[in-house]
Every structure is written in structure tokens, then in C-alpha cells.
Amino acid sequence: MLIIIGGAGRVGTDMAKALRAEDMDVVLVDSDSRAVKNAQNLDVLVIHGDLTTREKLFEAGIGEAAVFVAATNSDERNLLACSLAKHAHAELSGNKEKPLLAICRVRDMNYIEEQNEGKLQEWAKVDYVVNPLEGAIRRLHSGLRSSAIEEVIPFGHDAFIIELDVTSNATQVVFQKLRDVNKKIEGGMPLIVGLKRDGEKSLVPDGDFMLMPNDRIAVATTGLSSFNRILHIFGHEATDFPAEPRVAVLGANKIGQRIADDWLQSGATVTVIERDLQVANSLSGTDIGSHPKLEVIHGDHLDRDILTEIGISDHHIAIAALEDDLASIAAALLASDMGVSRTGLLLYDADLVKVTQRMGITFAVDRKRVAVDNMLAQIHTKTAGGYAILSNIPHIIGVSMVVTEASKLPGKRVVESSFPDWMRVAFIQRQNTTGNWESLRPSPDKTLLEDDRLIIFCSPDRVADLEKRFKV
Predict the structure, then answer these.
(1) How confident is the model at residue 97 (pLDDT cuts 50, 70, 90)?
(2) If you average pLDDT over residues 77-95, what whole number do you get?
(3) DSSP-derived pairing of the beta strands 317-320 and 25-30
(4) Where does residue 388 rank: exposed (0-12), middle (13-18), buried (19+ CB within 10 A)?
(5) Integer Cα distance of 232 and 238 in angstroms
(6) Closest CA to 446 of 407, 419, 423
(7) pLDDT tens, 15-29?
(8) What span, in angstroms and rounded, lies between the C-alpha atoms of 349 and 368?
(9) Is the N or the C terminus of the chain less surrounded, counting Cβ atoms within 10 Å?
(10) Which pTM does this prediction carry?
(11) Domains of the chain by start residue, with CATH
(12) Beta bridge partners of 397
């Protein structure tokens, strides 16, 4: 399958790497000569030119392409490129060929609303628009539950993958086979779906695998309340999270407003600090502005006197939501210095995520990584939705597959399903009698039902094998 990606920046190149790991044909197009040069070391065709010109789309092979992704930093440029790509594809391939799937990265939430209302496809010919903000906010919210978790990936319906290190204090589990440990731990051993050891390749561990201190692991779990149990098992100090936390949001821009709304919905008391009076007043005039647990303060988030006056040290969490990464880091560090125990960031620069962890920031989310995951989920149309790349365990991914009659799995127990060792089922997601989805642990005796969605972890080069196994 040929996939053309417009934009050879961080998002475009990360997508190209992930797709090449699945042995897909990829073409990158970018008008920035520096970005083109940096992408030359990838195993893809890189074309220097304007993706909004028909000539360059022809050169990229738009007539044979199955997917076109516009991932530049300009919403308008991405929308225009998708529309032109659709027209150029139809011109070359004819109406009998399968339509081109067009995916567009956007930042303006107005375009998301246009898609939700079914209008965007009509006027822009875009099949999917991706804005990673909501997913990034969910990851940040979950990650702030503990300072020992390096990454949290929500898979919906209360299902999470958390990434953390195994410490030498994990005496219950290290230097023992996972199969043996499972019998000793009350409630069973948490399900490890991916593991990386220094100097070795990432893998999906089986029952004969023996954990060692400093192993990096990805653990499947349901419910935020389960995090502390996992932390304790793998040698970390678990701390109780308040039922009704006090949260300070530094910045009242659109991102800050979404973060504030997210925490208000979970029962938190929120203080928003904004130095621009007009922006602060704008928040006060929104739907959440009259919320009884929201206080909007006009003032400088770097002014110690103002932070002292509002009682910043009495807040459990401080989240910086500024447009500039460095300004956000400075604001979070000051809040931490003044006594806030948990600090969070949404960042554009992936390199700064690891840096902020070393600085003592509790949890930072790489917005571009979330964008990549969201776009890959749309590209993999044969999956049931979820697709994620593990952050700290390279070459292990999570995908969602549907249980159908064609797969011959309905009615079988998990233990009878003959799933190979190279894959691991992390969750069974199922609609209950009320129509709501729930996430279940894939215990050996659990019976699979038709239309169940299985969240499966494996190496990217096994995705084609998964599709064959599930007859998609």
C-alpha cells in the first residue's frame, strides 16, 4: 500500500518510520530543503516540492496511492493539499478505483466541529481531521496521578497502558519467571505487554521471562485506581491521589480552557491564572466560566506575590498551558519551587519531554506523538480504532481488532484461542446490555464474543499477520 505524507517535520517523519516498520511504501513531500535533507536517512522516497501543486502530487504517485496525509504546521495548507490530492487521484485512477483516504492534521477546533457535523468532507474532501489536543489532555490527566509513571496511553473505556521502570525494590517479581510470580501475588501479576532492556531488542514477554531491575515495561490495566497497586509491585512508592484535588492552570488560552474543563468534570477545584485581562475575561464568559469550582485570576503566573496570594502551595497540581514550551516550563518550575507537589506540561517539542522529567516536572505530554498515534489509527482502517506506539519501548505497538465469525473466535475461551507468543491481548472491550463499552481483563477462562474488540500488542511487522488471523 502506497501512502503519501505531506510534511517532513517531526509528525511526518515519525509516521513514515512507523509505516515502514510495517513494510508499507511511503513517500514524503516537503518544500523545506532542510526538512528534506533530514529525512534522507529514512527508507522512503523524499521529494522536495510544494504538496499543494498537482505536479508534485503526480511525481509522488498520487494515482497509485491509497492514503494521503497532510501533516504540515498550517491548517489551511493541509486542507488545500487534501482537496487537491483527492482531485488528482480521481483524475489519474478513474472512478472505478478505490477512493483515496485523505487525513488532515489541524489545530483549529472549528475544523473538528465541521467534521463532527459532517460538513468538512463535503467542502474540503477530507475524510478525517486529527487534532491531538483532547488525547493529550487525557494522557496528562492520567499521568499526573503518579510521579513514577513515565507514560500513560488511554485506550478508551477506562483502559490504560502505563510505562514505568522495574526497580531493585520490586523483590516480589525480579529474578523470577513471570509464570511463577503470578501465583504469588494477591490478585495476580499485572499484565506486561511490552518490555525493553538496555542493549537488547524490545519484546512481548511470555511466562518464562524473568524480570530484572531497570527493565522498562508497559503494563495493561483498567481504572485509574489500579495505578498505585502496579507502582507498589514494581518497586515504586505509591502516593494517594486526592478525591477532589485543587488544580492551578497557568494560562487561559484555548488549551488552558480545555484543561480546566477536563479537571472540573472530574470533581476538581480549579484556579486559572492569566496575565492578559481580555483573555481572562473571555474565559469568564464561556460555559464553564460560571462553574462554582472555577476561579479565574488576572495576574502574572511568574509573580511570586500573586502566587502566594492565591495560595499556590495549597494546590495539589499545577499545569502550564502556554503557547511557548519554554514559558510553560518556567511557569511549572516556579509553581514546583513554591510548593506544588505535582506539575504537568503539554509540549510541542518532544526532546523537551525527557529534559523536563530530569528537572523534576511530574509529567509532560508530547503533543506531536499523540498526533502521530491518532493519524496512524486512521490510516489502519482494518483495525477497530485504537493504535499507539509505546514511548519508551521501541518497536512495540498496540492495535485493536474485532472478533468476527470469520475469525472463528466467538465462543472460544482466551486459553483456547491459540494466540501466538509474539502477540499479547491487553484488553477485551465489549458492549454491555445497556449499550455502554467496558474493558475486561483477558483472563484465560474469559469467553470471546462476536463484535468484541481486542487491544493487542506486538511488533509492527506482525500487523499483517494479525489482519490475516482476524480475517480483515
Answers:
(1) low
(2) 89
(3) unpaired
(4) buried
(5) 6
(6) 419
(7) 999 999 888 999 999
(8) 8
(9) N
(10) 0.83
(11) 2-131 (3.40.50.720), 148-233 (3.30.70.1450), 246-370 (3.40.50.720), 396-469 (3.30.70.1450)
(12) 389, 458
